[in-house]
Specification:
about 0% strand, mainly alpha, globular, 4 helices, single chain
């Protein structure tokens, strides 16, 4: 797959997620539990850093727009399309 085609797919999936968040007035809000979880994973050696698109998926799930299965599938699609 060419780099341009791959970039187009990533932008498409990211756009779907961004439009879904915008259409439902969902914004990413970092909670104290998010900060705690970040530090726990970092200290355990599993430093996990979500990008803004992945944070939007979490926000959509918290808002009840996506259920757990939908959120996981959407994130998997985003990650699959973003790998080289």
């Amino acid at each position: 797959m060419s780099a341009q085609r791959s970039a187009t797919k990533v932008r498409y999936t990211a756009g779907v997620i961004q439009r879904l968040a915008a259409a439902n007035n969902v914004a990413v809000v970092v909670t104290s539990n998010d900060v705690f979880a970040h530090h726990v994973t970092r200290l355990s050696g599993d430093d996990v850093n979500f990008d803004p698109i992945e944070n939007s998926i979490v926000a959509l799930q918290r808002a009840g727009i996506l259920d757990r299965v939908q959120a996981v599938r959407l994130q998997a699609r985003y990650l699959r399309e973003s790998r080289p």
